[in-house]
Amino acid sequence: MSFIYSTPSKYVAALKDENITWPVIKNHDFMPYAREHNNYWSGFFTSRPALKKQVKDYSSLFHSQQKLYARQMIDQKSTNELIKRVKDAAYNMEDILTVLTHHDAISGTSFQYVAQDYALRLAMAFD
């Protein structure tokens, strides 16, 4: 037995070489989502691009802030009050980013009022 670094194309080629097949399940699948008869959700991974961009930008800001916080802790150039404020703010940002990377938020399948609440909480955390 050997282990190699693989790519998706190498993996698929290896499956083809082994003649491995899986049955196609045509019913009881979780896609497409529907709330009612003939009322299907669409745009599963393409909806709410503005919220996704907001999450991406704020996530980048959060990680930059964490590096600055760590640098200040190493240098010990901050007062205890400032360190506490920064730490509290970081926990708030981390909490909302965790919620926003949940599958309903990041995939865009949440209701409109929920998406608006996500955006509001994100803006408040970073304010």
Keywords:
Substrate Binding Domain Of Dnak, Chain:A, Domain 2; flat; mainly alpha; two-stranded antiparallel sheet; 127 residues
Tell me about this structure:
This protein is mainly alpha-helical and 127 residues long. It has one domain: Glycoside hydrolase family 38, central domain (Substrate Binding Domain Of Dnak, Chain:A, Domain 2), CATH 1.20.1270.50. The protein is built from 5 helices and 2 strands. A two-stranded antiparallel ribbon has the order 1-2. A hairpin with a 2-residue loop joins strand 1 and strand 2. The longest helix is centred in the middle third of the chain and has 27 residues.
Second-tier CATH architecture: Up-down Bundle
- Give the uncertain stretches in residue-range form: none
Tell me, briefly, the overall form.
flat
Terminal Cα separation, in Å? 54 Å
Strand order in space, largest sheet: 1-2
**CATH fourth-tier homologous superfamily:** Glycoside hydrolase family 38, central domain
Q: Please state roughly what percent of the residues sit in beta strands, choosing from under 5%, 5-15%, 15-25%, 25-35%, 35-45% or over 45%.
A: under 5%
The third-level CATH topology is: Substrate Binding Domain Of Dnak, Chain:A, Domain 2
* Helix content range: 55-70%
N-to-C order of helices and strands: HEEHHHH
- Number of beta strands: 2
Taking all Cα atoms into account, the compactness measure Rg is 22 Å
CATH level 1 class label: Mainly Alpha
Overall tally of domains: 1
Number of helices: 5
Q: How can the largest sheet be summarized?
A: 2 strands, antiparallel
Mean pLDDT: 77
- Going by helix content, strand content and strand pairing, the class is mainly alpha
